[in-house]
Amino acid sequence: MEKLIDLPKILDKRGNLTFLENLNQIPFEIKRVYWTYDVPGGETRGGHAFHTQQEIIIALSGSFDVVIKDKQGDTRLYHLNRSYKGLYLPVMTWRHLENFSTNSLSLHICSGDFLETDYIRDFDAFKSLSK
Fold first, then answer.
1. Which residue from 30, 45, 54, 114 has the least number of CB within 10 angstroms?
2. Residue 79 CB: number of other CB atoms within 10 A?
3. Rounded-to-integer distance, Cα 25 and Cα 63, Å
4. Residue 131 and residue 121: Cα distance in Å, rounded?
5. What is the pLDDT, as a whole number, of residue 71?
6. Taken in order 25, 12, 34, 59, is the CA torsion positive or negative?
7. CA nearest 44: which of 95, 108, 88?
């Protein structure tokens, strides 16, 4: 199940610092990192699950919501707005991102390389696979 992860936060009067390291704060080996930015108002991103990839999503700047939907259609919402909090998503987690603030920046840390075949982009197919 998805969960929020507290990342290390080093407080300093000159500015704070947060970091992450493979297999310390991240429960998998990092294979791919990407980020989403300049999302127009009202747009959503995501709308899929992965067969095999795990992911952590961090709001590096601004804020946005991550909406998780289970196979029964029940939803859970995570409002990300702190660069020292990550949302861990295990394999087979349906999600989309919405409600992006101006200048928001979402960082995605993944356990696998990009493979289109790893994406499940149809919710009905997701429901049948996750039984």
1. 114
2. 11
3. 21
4. 17
5. 85
6. positive
7. 95
pLDDT higher at 45 or 21: 45
Are residues 64 and 35 in contact, defined by beta-carbon separation less than 8 angstroms? no
CA distance 66 to 81: 11
Active site residue 48: yes
Task: Band the pLDDT of 23: cuts 50, 70, 90.
Answer: confident
Structure tokens at 54: 């795990």
Looking at the domain covering 3-129, what would its CATH class be?
A: mainly beta
Domain ranges in the chain?
Answer: 3-129
Give the pLDDT score at 27: 92
3-state class percentages of the chain: helix first, strand second, coil last, to nearest 5: 10, 45, 45
Sign of CA dihedral 32, 55, 20, 28: negative
Phi and psi dihedrals of 54, rounded to 5? -100, 160
